[in-house]
Amino acid sequence: MAWRLGQSGYVTRSGGRVPWRPERWIPVDPDWAFSPLLRVRAALDATRPLAASGAVLAGLATACGLGFRLAQYATPAGRPLDEAVAQLTRGLQELIAQTQAAVDSALLAHRA
Fold it and tell me: What is the pLDDT of residues 26-53, one digit of tens each?
């Protein structure tokens, strides 16, 4: 995945400052790293109109187990994720539910 993002120009390899640490992938533009978080924050902000793209992003991130990361950036008086997802079309709600099922299935298969 990182290699494909590198080929597309979104990330680049960065040599470690310490010689024994491996190289890691970092964003080419620091703003790109935070733009998804800003979109999710805007979608969960109750004072703003709901952006469907942000709500889908938040739903998919939560379905993949990243809900704890989203909670760090949510506004205190924010819109609950369930409320945001409920305003999406049925097809997008199904996409989020199927993603959650696939992630749960993969986790259970790994533990078995």
Answer: 888 877 777 877 888 888 788 888 888 8
